[in-house]
Amino acid sequence: DTTAHFSDLVPSTRCTCVMIMLFNQLLDMPPLSCGWIILEDNCSLTGIDMPSQVFSCPQCPFSHRREVNLQQHIRKEHLTEEHSRNLDSGGAENSLPSSQTIQRPSIKTTKKYICFKCGKGFRSPSDLKRHKGVHTDMQPFHCNQCDKRFKAKGSLKQHQRVHSGERPYDCSHCGRGFRTSDILKSHIRIHTGERPYGCTICGKRFIQRQVLTRHIRMHSGEKPYLCSICGKTFACSGELMVHSRIHTGERPYHCEQCGNTFSLASKLKVHQRSHTGERPYPCTQCPKGFSTSTRLVKHMRIHTGERPYPCVKCGKRFSERGNMRIHQRMHEKERKGRQMTICQHCGKSYTSAAILKIPIRTHTGERPYSCSVCGKKFNQKHTLVRHLRMHKGDRPYLCSVCGKACFVSGEFIVHMHFHTGERPYRCKLCGKCTSP
């Protein structure tokens, strides 16, 4: 009978039998026809002789040596979404023998708690409960600083270290700290040179598995992460998360000195260098330093004369992509038969009326931005912002050498030349260098 049938099964095997029996009931098949096929025995399974067992689907020719694969197959190919929910809610067990009437076998299994969604096994009910959150949209743990939500408490704890700056895992090679042990493990491979994950297509090797996964998508062209608002697709979830902030306007990283907010932690880090004066990327040809590697690369083209961005229309080359795109707009307007926008006061030409709008105020004297404190007017908004700092006494740019604070970044850069001795301006007539 059913009870005798179940009493011979180990708990993990019993879970699969429950699934198959429910499946058979849904198909109006005999209730004890569980589809369990063992090569050597009938339906008495002790769980010891695994290689001799084959688990077969009662509906199609599919079979496998692992019951987990059979569970996944039945869910994917045969059960509807409604039937799966019925199985998860315990509907199957209501029509099958009670677990109290089944005699537990003496053989111990390491992972007897099975997830009915994916067939994965766990050692304890709490592990299974945490895992079930993967299959739902519930995110009960939320950050009280940026309102980001998480499915697991451990994930929230790791995230909060972003705000607190806590880095409890130190590298024994360089002393650098990290937020999680997994990040530390990947970092250590930089010192050891270990690259355990290799691409089967081009042979390139990587330190992290997820980097390899993103790399493989370059070969396949796969972009599985879709923006639900604009439809743009991305190769990794991180790119989608950053992109979504364009739509939401979320800027979770803020500067404590001036209040500016940023969508990326890396952008905040670069911005903070404008306050500290840190310039970690020095030029090898001159004493000048830069806050980002990108700015250093652009600067080096002054020394090398490199102009890597050519115009496809006329062949003229540019050191920066932005300048090349501005130049190409001239050809685009010529192709459409439209004239450049000419300033009526000085005769200068501009690619659009929007660009001409600001310089024309120099001729007309228009000053649309006024100070609410003293009434002084300005022709550009950012000039008014700098002016307001004088009333507030706000000096966000602090010199780390002498402690002097400046209103604007330009004033701060000039001040730093006194400490560094840098003289970046050369006279074309005599060759003498000077500072501002």
Describe the protein's architecture and organization.
This protein is α+β, with helices and mostly antiparallel strands and 436 residues long. Among the domains are: 2-135, no CATH class; 309-364, 2-Layer Sandwich (Double Stranded RNA Binding Domain); 369-434, Classic Zinc Finger (Double Stranded RNA Binding Domain, 2-Layer Sandwich), CATH 3.30.160.60. It contains 17 helices and 26 strands. The chain has a two-stranded antiparallel ribbon with strand order 1-2. A hairpin with a 6-residue loop joins strand 11 and strand 12. The protein is elongated. InterPro entries: Znf_C2H2-type, Znf_C2H2_sf, Znf_C2H2_type.
Helical residue percent?
25-40%
Total beta-strand segments = 26
- Termini separation comes to 96 Å
Q: Label the overall shape.
A: elongated
Largest sheet: 2 strands, antiparallel
Features:
two-stranded antiparallel ribbon, alpha+beta, Double Stranded RNA Binding Domain
Task: Summarize, please.
With about 425 residues, the chain is α+β, with helices and mostly antiparallel strands. Helix content is about 40%, strand content about 10%.
Topology overview:
Elements lengths: L1 H6 L3 H16 L28 E2 L6 E2 L2 H11 L3 H8 L2 H4 L18 E2 L6 E2 L2 H8 L8 E2 L6 E2 L2 H12 L4 E2 L6 E2 L2 H12 L4 E2 L6 E2 L2 H12 L4 E2 L6 E2 L2 H12 L4 E2 L6 E2 L2 H12 L4 E2 L6 E2 L2 H12 L4 E2 L6 E2 L2 H15 L5 E2 L6 E2 L2 H5 L2 H5 L4 E2 L6 E2 L2 H12 L4 E2 L6 E2 L2 H12 L4 E2 L6 E2 L2
Antiparallel strand pairs: 1-2, 3-4, 5-6, 7-8, 9-10, 11-12, 13-14, 15-16, 17-18, 19-20, 21-22, 23-24, 25-26
Organism: Oncorhynchus kisutch
Pfam families: zf-C2H2
Keywords: Metal-binding, Nucleus, Repeat, Transcription, Transcription regulation, Zinc, Zinc-finger
